[in-house]
Amino acid sequence: MFLQSLEIKQRLLQKAHPLLADTIYALGYMYREQGRFPEAEPLCVKALELDKQLLGDNHPYVAESLNNLAEIYRLTGRYSEAQPLYQQALDICQQVWGVNHPHTVTVRGSLADIRDRLSSLR
After folding, report:
1. Considering only CA atoms, which of 74, 80, 82, 62 is closest in space to residue 32?
2. How many domains would you assign to the chain?
Protein backbone atom coordinates (compact mmCIF):
# COMPACT_ATOMS: atom_id res chain seq x y z
CA MET A 1 0.00 0.00 0.00
CA PHE A 2 2.90 2.35 0.70
CA LEU A 3 4.21 1.71 -2.80
CA GLN A 4 0.81 2.45 -4.34
CA SER A 5 0.49 5.59 -2.25
CA LEU A 6 3.97 6.71 -3.26
CA GLU A 7 3.26 6.09 -6.95
CA ILE A 8 0.03 8.10 -6.83
CA LYS A 9 1.61 10.97 -4.91
CA GLN A 10 4.58 11.08 -7.29
CA ARG A 11 2.14 11.43 -10.18
CA LEU A 12 -0.11 14.04 -8.58
CA LEU A 13 2.11 16.15 -6.35
CA GLN A 14 5.10 18.38 -6.86
CA LYS A 15 8.48 16.71 -6.54
CA ALA A 16 9.01 18.55 -3.25
CA HIS A 17 5.75 18.14 -1.35
CA PRO A 18 5.34 17.35 2.37
CA LEU A 19 2.95 14.45 1.72
CA LEU A 20 5.43 12.91 -0.68
CA ALA A 21 8.25 13.32 1.85
CA ASP A 22 6.11 11.69 4.56
CA THR A 23 5.33 8.69 2.36
CA ILE A 24 8.96 8.23 1.33
CA TYR A 25 9.99 8.43 5.00
CA ALA A 26 7.33 5.90 6.05
CA LEU A 27 8.32 3.43 3.33
CA GLY A 28 12.01 3.75 4.20
CA TYR A 29 11.23 3.29 7.90
CA MET A 30 9.15 0.19 7.16
CA TYR A 31 11.94 -1.32 5.06
CA ARG A 32 14.43 -0.54 7.83
CA GLU A 33 12.25 -2.29 10.39
CA GLN A 34 12.04 -5.30 8.07
CA GLY A 35 15.82 -5.39 7.72
CA ARG A 36 15.60 -4.45 4.04
CA PHE A 37 18.47 -1.98 4.35
CA PRO A 38 19.46 -1.70 0.65
CA GLU A 39 15.89 -0.65 -0.15
CA ALA A 40 15.53 1.56 2.92
CA GLU A 41 18.70 3.62 2.54
CA PRO A 42 17.93 5.52 -0.70
CA LEU A 43 14.42 6.28 0.53
CA CYS A 44 15.75 7.62 3.82
CA VAL A 45 18.31 9.76 2.01
CA LYS A 46 15.54 11.14 -0.24
CA ALA A 47 13.25 11.83 2.73
CA LEU A 48 16.08 13.69 4.49
CA GLU A 49 16.76 15.79 1.38
CA LEU A 50 13.07 16.64 1.00
CA ASP A 51 12.65 17.48 4.69
CA LYS A 52 15.63 19.85 4.57
CA GLN A 53 14.37 21.45 1.38
CA LEU A 54 10.81 21.87 2.64
CA LEU A 55 11.38 22.58 6.32
CA GLY A 56 14.91 23.87 6.76
CA ASP A 57 17.89 22.27 8.45
CA ASN A 58 16.66 22.54 12.05
CA HIS A 59 13.16 21.09 11.94
CA PRO A 60 12.16 18.09 14.12
CA TYR A 61 11.27 16.07 11.01
CA VAL A 62 14.83 16.59 9.78
CA ALA A 63 16.04 15.18 13.11
CA GLU A 64 13.77 12.15 12.63
CA SER A 65 15.08 11.60 9.11
CA LEU A 66 18.69 11.95 10.29
CA ASN A 67 18.02 9.46 13.07
CA ASN A 68 16.33 6.99 10.72
CA LEU A 69 19.26 7.05 8.29
CA ALA A 70 21.75 6.80 11.17
CA GLU A 71 19.90 3.71 12.42
CA ILE A 72 20.35 2.04 9.04
CA TYR A 73 24.07 2.77 9.20
CA ARG A 74 24.26 1.51 12.79
CA LEU A 75 22.37 -1.69 12.00
CA THR A 76 24.65 -2.39 9.04
CA GLY A 77 27.84 -1.73 11.01
CA ARG A 78 28.60 1.61 9.32
CA TYR A 79 29.27 3.36 12.61
CA SER A 80 31.48 6.15 11.29
CA GLU A 81 28.68 7.15 8.90
CA ALA A 82 26.06 6.98 11.64
CA GLN A 83 27.91 9.14 14.16
CA PRO A 84 27.65 12.55 12.41
CA LEU A 85 23.98 11.94 11.61
CA TYR A 86 23.18 11.14 15.23
CA GLN A 87 25.13 14.26 16.26
CA GLN A 88 23.13 16.45 13.88
CA ALA A 89 19.87 14.89 15.08
CA LEU A 90 20.89 15.46 18.70
CA ASP A 91 21.76 19.10 18.03
CA ILE A 92 18.32 19.68 16.50
CA CYS A 93 16.49 17.83 19.28
CA GLN A 94 18.28 19.80 21.98
CA GLN A 95 17.55 23.07 20.20
CA VAL A 96 13.87 22.29 19.56
CA TRP A 97 12.86 20.25 22.62
CA GLY A 98 15.60 20.72 25.20
CA VAL A 99 18.02 18.28 26.79
CA ASN A 100 15.52 16.22 28.80
CA HIS A 101 12.87 15.55 26.14
CA PRO A 102 12.36 11.81 25.43
CA HIS A 103 13.40 12.16 21.77
CA THR A 104 16.55 14.02 22.79
CA VAL A 105 17.41 11.38 25.39
CA THR A 106 16.89 8.58 22.84
CA VAL A 107 19.13 10.19 20.23
CA ARG A 108 21.77 10.97 22.87
CA GLY A 109 21.76 7.30 23.86
CA SER A 110 22.15 6.20 20.25
CA LEU A 111 25.06 8.60 19.77
CA ALA A 112 26.74 7.31 22.94
CA ASP A 113 26.31 3.73 21.71
CA ILE A 114 27.93 4.57 18.38
CA ARG A 115 30.82 6.33 20.09
CA ASP A 116 31.36 3.26 22.29
CA ARG A 117 31.31 0.96 19.27
CA LEU A 118 33.79 3.14 17.41
CA SER A 119 36.16 3.37 20.38
CA SER A 120 36.09 -0.41 20.84
CA LEU A 121 37.17 -0.83 17.20
CA ARG A 122 40.29 1.28 17.72
Report:
1. 74
2. 1
